[in-house]
Amino acid sequence: MIRVLSVASEIAPLVKTGGLADVTGALPGALEGAGVQMRSLVPGYPAVMAALAAPEAVHRFEDLFGGPAVVLAGRAAGLDVLVLDAPHLYARPGNPYLGPDGRDWPDNPERFAALSWAGAHLGAHGAGGWQPQVLHGHDWQAGFMTEYLPRMGGAAPRSVLTIHNIAFTGATDSGRMHALRLDPARFHSDGYEFWGAISALKAGLMGADALTTVSPRYAEELMTPDFGMGLDGVMRHRQGDLTGILNGIDDAVWDPATDPEITRFRDPAGKAAARAALRAELGLPEAAGPLCVIVSRMTHQKGLDLVLEVLPTLLEAGGQLAVLGSGDPGLEQAFRHTAQDPNVAVRIGYDEGLSHRLIAGGDAILVPSRFEPCGLTQMYGLRYGTIPVVALTGGLADTVINASPAAMARGVATGIQFAPVTATALRGALIRLAALFAEPRLWTRMQVNAMAHPVGWSQSADAYAALYGRLIQGR
Q: How many CA atoms, within 13 angstroms, populate the side-chain half-sphere of residue 471?
């Protein structure tokens, strides 16, 4: 078995703000069948500490960025975890990154430098007799591990950094070098310097032995100015060490035949009951057109402003819209306003059960993201026969087979893609959607294709295992 320590700021189902947690929560189980034993180091947030069963202290830090800390080994929600119990850094309510005022905690650089420091120490020295061969960090919160590793002594594990979203660089003022225990001699373009600032992500991108990201297309996009967020030059420099490995979903949790949150079904015909139940829950009337759903953070990235612009087109075609999400106050207010129409339902906030019922009961799921490293909601849609309408970018392009004339003629289409990411293109996609929905034979064929499309972790787990093996063998 290859031994891997995963280091991440969140992990489902213990703590989750987005797709990162879904990935870090699903990977250990998926990799087990591929010959990989993965343990996960996560911060000791209150929810994590509450879920930790029979913890055993395996290491103590006398001073970890402002206070003592203990690494606890144990089980939580079926996962083998190492929890960094540092109350001065993590014993805080709510979101892992944001204070009660909705802003970043001012000491976030130190909070996640501590996670990287602990990860580097455990990578070099192990914990409780368990020694990883590979350190696998996720996003900027684990980016400093490769800066700290040379100072730890002990073993020299191989390292991987996965980019889930390059837009979050973990940048902070250069005056924080001493506080973050960084070597000033490494503040240069081949180290952690990023446009005159410190960047934890840049440190990891330059220092890790291998880089991965969460879809093949996003790997290509990262090397362009439009998507690289100022790091496209770094990505071109590390191109030979970068692999795009598509995310998967937990297809045991997301299974329309067994999902406890929904009116269950096994084929497209069974969706009718789930759709009726959703309409009843949301107070939507019957309609002639497709019931479109959105489950999303409300941010500029997600392109939801485009949905607001083209909503009249959907409603004029007899369609409906149901939305679940939160984020930008302006978008929240705009969507609340649309709910004055009887064919629109909006729920602001996060509700895991409702997200399942929306995806089960919807006819189509809209994902008009301006950029999307991988995306999971379109995969949930595929699994439930809810046709994805997606922008042609990142993992959306890699997971959905567009209903082009050729794909429809061959009977292989699973959704609708549109480009460029504009209101005009999205409007055209909705017109195509309504036309396909009006053709029951074609629509059912697409639903059957969608539900049969592989969206689990099997192939991706094999790809990660192969990468770890190459690293250990020095290839």
A: 28
